[in-house]
Records
---
Amino acid sequence: MMTAEKGTVYLVGAGPGDPELLTVRALRLLEQADIIFHDDLVPDSILALANPRSLVTSVGKRCGRPRITQQGIHSLMIESARAGQSVVRLKSGDPLVFGRAGEEIAALRSAKTPFIIVPGVTAALAAGAALELPLTDRKSASKLIFCTGHHAADKADDIPLWTGPLPEDATLVVYMPGRDTSRLARDLRAAGVAESTPCCAISHAAKPQQSHAACRLEAFDELQCGPAPLLLLIGRAMEPLMETETSHEVAHAVIAEAAANAFVRN
């Protein structure tokens, strides 16, 4: 059983936001740690599991409004560990998937500060489970590709989502895609993605406020995406969603027609 050792930093994945999807190891560390530095996307329901005596501090940097620099986070972790505290750096999803863990690992190594990485359920896996869809399938998707629409500040804003041909048998998962669906659609078309390819935007995956919208790439420019955190899933493995969406549209049309007929009769 892992216990929170004094002088050690734990880079811990909080998962997609549902406390039931925390790993046992993550829960134990939350219950024991002296200090917890967490991202903004970690919900209160998970922070409530922390030891009541723990110092719990947000170090989030969402939506371009940083309250603390990345270097400042490094300093907090290192100084706290050197002071003999057990430190949990709590990140949404998995620390090693678009979580800036590489920078924090480098800083901890440079400072010779002991650290341990505790993986978590990344948003893509939670989204597949929430939609009841496998991200890979023997018939339609033998590849799974993760990418992000968000880049470091020193990179150009016009970097395309994807360059070169996208394999037809791949499921492409886009983390932090932003709100410019027209630009994303252009990038996908430029990569040779067929207009008939199913696309799904899922908001707040595995949380009570979860919502999703699906369409084919030909209509992606007009897709009404929910609020962030947002994830896009693109590929033939999403085809069952098209059948579901069509069924819903037909059902709504039938209900609307019945209501109209009833109004005329009355």
---
Amino acid sequence: MFQPIKCFEMPLKLRGGELTLPRSYIYATRATPADTFRRFAERAKSEAGWRYHELDASHSPNVTAPEALMALLEKIVAERT
């Protein structure tokens, strides 16, 4: 699978003040040699306001670890309520 390059090139413009929604980053640890997402994971780990999680899966965890992904998503939701 390929990721469209525009998602990395187009800036996101937020309006209406600070972002107040809960944010979680899930890093899939079965990375390719290029590991495009490691830098985003490191940023999420170090920035305030983010909750960081790791999952033993490829970048498509719905395919390589669906049960583990579901359990993690349920945990994230439960922590928010």
